[in-house]
Fold each of these.
Amino acid sequence: MSHTTKGLVLIADAESSIRDFLHFYLKRAGYQVLQAGDGHDVLIEMAKVQPDLVLADLSLPGIRGDHLCKIIKKNPDTRDMYIILMTPTNDMLDNETTIEALNIGADDTIIKPLRGQELIARVDSAFRIIRMQKEIKQHNRELTVYRENVQRDIELAARLQLSLLPEAGAVGPYRYTHIYKPVGGIGGDIYAISPLPYGGVGVLIADVSGHGVTASLISTMVKTSFENHIRTRGGPLIWAQCMNRDLARNTLEEQYATAFIAQLDPMTSTISYVCAGHEPAIYIADGQSGEPRHPAILNNASSPLGMDENMSFSERTTPFAPGDRLILYTDGLVEAESNSNTILSSEGLLRFCSEMPSELEDAAALIFDQTQLFIDPNKFTDDVTLVVIDHL
Amino acid sequence: MLNIQTKQEGNASVLSVKGKINFEVTAQLRGAIKDLIAAQQPNLLVINLEGTSFIDSSGLGLLVAARSSADKNGSRLHICCISPQVKKVFDQTNLTNYFSIFATEQDALRV
């Protein structure tokens, strides 16, 4: 649309007197005007400059007005152009043609003989719609760019978050693997497994309240806090207290993390742990045998991290000997819901764990596949992290 | 969407929640609690969870923030009528003793 006029109108009519009449009124009303005497001329003019509005006679020679309308509306480059068809009289036959013209995409019709005031009122009204459409299109373009930028950022963050997870492998006498399925690219689940400078291995699995970017940022804080505190001696109880303080001081209301924090000690064949509001871990004595076993729950129900600086925690120590298996997970796994609105629950998970393959990766796949089968055709609605650790 | 009903009992406000409390509905519940406190400024807010079969981490965070906010304002937050499933979540997160939890709404209002 020109900046110096209210917009560009192309008049298409075989009669030069009508074109001049329209030209006069439109120009006086502040519009820039082009003229065409037949349908072919309209297409020629439109190839040079695209008008905002075409005011075409229904019985235009060369290409009739309704056919012209079809051509314009079929072309993706011109389909948003506003078209007003001028119909010669208001008899029944032309009325049907007018309805058909509107059906194939004409935006409005005006009946001849034309009256100057009505013409301008119709064109002004059309331009209000044209301006609104242009604004909507501009907003859509801006939204598309914004959405693409956000999507790109989330994809980058997801790649970064994935790189923070330990690669499946071994540390000391422990082998471990994981399955990590965030909902929506990034999530609030995190886990870490690190050799301790004074012997043994520190293990963390955590789930931050909420989803998305905020949860993902806090999960990184949780991991950093864990890695800072395990450098000093003390064990899971001290680590949990320190991590709780870090989180309580650095997060907002309603933001907290549940976590299972453990120290694996190969010298004493034990695991010491704090279950900070998290799903209990599953311990399977001789779990790598490939034979049916009785899985046990490791839980001591402490508070989540970051809710309140004064929350208390407790630590427990149990055996974790060569041949044993440990399974850690986040609530997205056990709160997965079947089609009949039944959640898997930790009891359901225990059933899957009672007879597991001896291979670590096969064990993780079995749990995940069985859970997917349980909820099918539903999908996971929360981030899912599953970690299996074998004491070799 | 949660079904949330509110009523006044003297200086106490009761907010009854029906439905699953998860991430999708925490904004609705947060808004209802804030509106009720702003309108009534109750000495005691009772949250009745009789119709709530599930609460996730977002819902727990919201309740903890509500309790913390009540502490700061010199008012009290009581929770009542929790289902066995919700109790399990409170137990697992060691929050059963953090909150004042009552078996019935009458008990929650009386204390």
Amino acid sequence: MTTTDFQVSTSDSVNADGYHSFRLGEFEFRRDEYFVYITWPTGQHMMSIDAFLRALQRDVAWDFFYGIVNFDGVFGTVNHYGTVDIFAGRYNDSYRKAELDYSENHETPEIRETFKSILADWTNDTFDPFASPHETGAAWGVKNGSNEAAITRRRVAARRMVAVPGDEQIRTDDSGFPVNRMFLDVDQTEPVIEPEPGFEDEVVAFNLFAYLSRSDVTWNPSVVSQCKDSLFCPTTEEYILPIIHGNDRVEWFVQLSDQITWEVEDRDTGAVRARVTMKAGDVSAMPADIRHQGYSPKRSMLLVWENNSSAIPDLIASGQAPTYPVEF
Amino acid sequence: MGNPSRGGGVEHSSYTTVFGSLDSYDKGGVELINDDARHYAFSNMFEVAANAKPWEKIAVAKNFEYVLEAVRAEGTSEWRTAAHDEFAVCMDGNVTVDLVKLDASPLAEDAEGSIALDGEPEGARMGRIHLGRGHQALLPAGAAYRFTAEKPSVLMMQTIAGPDTQYRWAEICQTV
């Protein structure tokens, strides 16, 4: 193994399929044509490389997101906002009872750079981990180029609201965001705005639905408006959320179009708790003690609403705040 | 990609996007396996607006001090203001927003939530926005705003709970 400037531990040479292997602490990662193989001191695990890369892409793009990013029922990460746990079996009841679960804590830059390196080396030219299965080639096979543009998309995060001068701007054909094939019937008319002179920067509106219809990624919330710590993070969804998100705070979903079904499990054990079917106009909380995975049969628009306050995870973990949003 | 003989799927030639409206919405729900439906506070904002009086601010989501409110927009609203930015998304219909830069806000700089203003606001006219379905408007901190909707419409407000925020969870949410 050699170590780069960013402390990424990479194999000196590639395997027979053309891929490097990687190490982070006691975790080792290698891939072949179909699978990723993850090993740690008390066990080992296999995942489809397609599912692994889709999950890895979200974990990297979201900078480990809120709470737990389960790649599947065994492997994942926990964000401590400065450090990140990487775990195997920690949120799997059978692994816990067998005492085979394992976890390490790393400084965020260390795991971030390692995961980015894996993503870069293992994503081939024909595969876009952010795209729906209809929109991309396969992740399978021996090493076949790379797709740097797809895996390093800039994360959109409006500071006030999309379309405000100096902030994130609306998407257009000219800016490289054509209307998605499943949203061709979405009205593209922008609101009529009549500002008085001098108020052009504050009299602002945009077509949120048109903006979402031009998203080139799936399952990737991005901020369009911000009211202090209240973040509107809409996203377009198609097929399956590539991760199982374990909450460290209550988050809310507003279904803006079409339909998503959420499979909800206990955050710590994986025991099934509920199935939530959301149609246009539906609003549902996701409690702070669950994990969820969504299924969207057609590309749909989902508003993910987050409270970005850094105080919340400790309030919930210490029992000072409930795991569900309201009492009634 | 798109080659059925090599594992790609065949797609429809066109798709229909389903939005909701006051006149046409299809509500989903929580199928319980081992949980309490109230933990999800599941509602539908078109149903909430359909059963609301014009301009009632009914919380459909709450996360500590922050709320999302469903508002039935019909006729002309009162003038309101907040010390922080708010945002309005037109979920159905057409809504006009009038904005005035208040000469003097009645609110402290750190006040949270919006309040109603008595009478006409005093200040410079900032402009007007015409919202259709799916359009989102900034309601700037320190501005007064008033909505007008000729036909029943629906707004979703991104704001902080205030004195006029109404909580009707048991009425609007799935409980079993």
